Predict the structure.
Amino acid sequence: MTFPTLNLPVISPQIVLVVAALVILIADLVIVQKRILGWISLVAALGALATVFTYRPASPAFQNMALADGLGLFTTAAVLIAAALALLLSVERVADFTRHAGAYYALILLATAGMTALTIASDFMTIFVAIEILSLALYVLSGFNRRDARSSEAALKYFLLGAFASGFLLYGIALIYGATGTTNLAAIAQGIAPLSVSLPFAPLLPLGVGLLLVGLGFKVALVPFHMWTPDVYQGAPTPVTAFMSVGTKTASFAALIRVLAALGSHDRPWLLALAGLAVLTMTLGNLAALRQTSLKRMLAYSSIAHAGYIVTGLAAGNPRGAEGALYYLLAYTFMNLGAFAVLLAVQRREENDVSVERLHGLAARQPVLAVLMALFMFSLAGIPPLAGFFAKLYVFSGAVEAGLAWLAIVGVINSAIGAYYYLRVTVAMFMSEPAADAAEAPKPGWPVMATIAIAALATLLLGIWQFPWMQSIIQAVSTLALR
Amino acid sequence: MFEYAWLMLAFPALGTLIIALFGTRLGKRVVGVLAPAMVALSFGVAVWLFVTLLGLPAEERSHEVTLWQWMATGSFKVDVALLIDQLSITMALVVTGVGFLIHVYSVGYMHDDARFPRFFAFLNFFILMMLTLVLANNYLLLYVGWEGVGLASYLLIGFWFEKPSAADAGKKAFLVNRIGDFGLALAIMFIWTGLGSLQFTQVFSRAPEVWGAGNATVKIVTMLLLLAATGKSAQLPLYVWLPDAMEGPTPVSALIHAATMVTAGVYMTARSAVLFGLAPTSAMWVAVIGAVTALYAASIALTQVDLKRILAYSTISQLGYMFLAVGVGAYASGIFHLATHAFFKALLFLAAGSVMHGLHGELDIRKMGNLRAKMPTTYWTFLVGAAALAGIPLLSGFFSKDEILWYAWQKSPVLWLIGLTTAALTAIYSFRAVFVPFWGQERDKKLHHHAHESPKAMTVPLVILAIGAALAGYIGLPRLSLIEHWLEPVFHGSETAAAVAGSAEAAATAAHSPIEWVLLGVSALVALGGAYLAYRAYVVNTDWPKRVRESLGWFARLVENKYYVDEAYTAIIVQPLKDIAGWFARTVDQRGIDGAVNGVASVTGWVGAQARKLQTGLVGLYALSILFGAVALLAWLVVR
């Protein structure tokens, strides 16, 4: 009997993260200065990121259960960057909403471990387990603000609905297993490509994929599986929202891209279903965002709309669409995290949300903050040469190339609508007098400002000098079996 | 030599950065020197490149300068690169030249403004973006500039945001422009997927081969480009933002109306000449929209009483001429008119600003009168500008407008007639804007008493611009056609494309014939006649306009109210969108948490109670949404 090769280096980021989480939990008992725990967790996230750049094992691990290919490495890096920025953001303000800082940092690291596991999962079993790991950690994190009733409710809602959606996911996996006889993506890819329609249980496959879309669609907040999003984003502590809004999306979309690529290259009815979901998602997300006064809620609907744009790239079903989606995820990581970071910077200690009125006259009080927020808003609105513009350009041209010009048109109209509510934020900051009771938020310390600055720099750089980034994205997509 | 072209962009970029970061610390004096100096340096580089180009044979006058590799996917790549050729350098000269004078003028005009440095940071940024737009060697970089000038105009129009009207006007400009941008973005995607490149030279060499004449894609692309151009260049139906844009400080209006922003659409259409050559129908649409807009806006300009608003509608009307020109394939004439218009329109706006300065912000021409006594320099320069606008013979507007009419005549006498009618209206409203405020009796004694001439920083640019407005036309004298020969190689490709399209006669260089002289005479008579009519109506027999107005009845009211287009847009688009958004905010966004929280005083210990409440309430609804979604999705996948 030969012992199966584990190829442990593949999961080195996860090992680093989990070990660090355990260390923090123990250290929490002895260290009084909780800030140190934050730095430890940040070092862990950066260490995990370093392993991504040093080890590049492209061979499968754990008997094809995990595969750190170009797609896996790219999205793992994106998630780890998001985690590192979120941790940097947390260090300063975590004491505002909890006394259990140790548990908080440990949970962030565990959620990150789950997300990164999802990005390299190449078997439905690992996909499911990874989703559960990240979800369980996020359920708890959403409810971490014990002072805000909304936070506890958010956690509860997220948990109940998440469990519900997991059921769909699992059922979908079961049906796909029934149709193909395996849970392994590589095996499915080999099995489906030549057979397709003549499989014995042919109808099971689209049904399974449909249920899978429900499960993953819930995670990335596609309409009509999105309704938890505004409540949870608003209720969760702001650094948690910042992290989950980008990390979960990146990881879940990575899994979705991998699954769709494995599911064969012809007769893909789910692509049109994805196109339909994209239209619903971006339109409803944008329209609902128009009138929000809570900025966290507005950004929640905006994140729904952005999920719609990203799905556009997936619905294209071609390499350019997938490249666009990956670029989008990285761009979105920086611009959205940056926007939430600004919200945290203007949030008072006892607050867990910021209204538009609070931004009135921000340009006069904190010009740097206002300019950077404007940068994030313009990028989210898709104004060149910022990253958000190219993200949209890539996914929409993927759709045009796939013959889905109508989808691109809907997308472009939507981004025109979206520009309105992002502009509203800018108007509030630059062209409105501050409200009379504008009590000052604590002056943001350097970690918050550093997070914002890094995010802003990346948002700009991704746009004006995208050659290096696109190289790794193209490499990532080329290994997938997309037409 | 050409590798230094990036300096044109670097100077205003540097200016923007320095003033934005250290403006308040540097003080007004330094900023007031630095900002114009940066544009002047940029202008210097443009002149230098222009002279270099002049020294080269015609076929070697196109140079591409790559700054850095921007994006690349597979075989497709786009660089941040500049294209220096006759067209782009002409545009750059206009932008930086007129832009510089406007900067100088602004130093005087904005002197007492608290946000003086910020204004100049925006102004330099505006120039930077406009230069990016005209110097780009590909559609993507052009789009960066395209959106950039939109952003800059938003910032500058809404500069005095304490005035709600200014803030609204800024927002309106930005959002209406976004509709046009939508066209350009889509066009870029179609060009990319169709031709595999966005670089101008490659696009224009591949398009005739890949798409050929009359191809459906090229029709779509050109119509989308036209949509984009109508947004940026304020043509029907997207012109609505421009009249409101005068809420910004007057130098900004001058910049938007003359040198930057609105000319972008004309430039982009001219640049895409090859594509329009492949799609004659789209080109015809350009001409028709241009002609109709010209007439439409001129009729509104005739009825307005706000001096800047008259000028705003006149800009829309003149841009219509430029569209007419590029639509009938007379690209060089379109750019020629763009250049002469830049001079006289900048002049008119700055002179109007001078009037406003002297009258403490008053712009209603009905309250002015006999200002020539108090503000001689402003009067004389305004007169030159208005005469050029009206197309009075031997001034710049006469030559450029006449050329457009000549080409329109060759394409279709109907277009020519519309153009000629517009010319008559133009002459009338231009001289109305001269006679009513500057001649006759002072109507408001107090206002008139305080009126004074503006400082040197403002009047010197006026004089320079007046000289330009008077003489700029001589680069395009009929038969000599210096500018036409200069620009012709750029549009050479479009003739080949048009030849492919089977309409060679449309774009072929027009044969000069005796008819041209006849038409020239007709336009001269129309312009002089219009001016005389204005003299009769507004100086000699001042109750005549009132009688005309009464006899026209409802039509006069329709025109005075700008055909109720703004109201129609509000009713048809803005209000419904607001209602939908409101409906979504109330109904779709359940705000579930708020309701649930009210019932619970303290959270800790009540989680169980909340869970029950939630399970019976909203969570159930949310789950139902997931379930319905799932059922619909599966049903579709199975039935399909």
Q: What stands out?
A: The two ends of chain A are 40 Å apart (CA to CA). Chain A has a mean pLDDT of 88. Residues 266-483 of chain A form one domain.
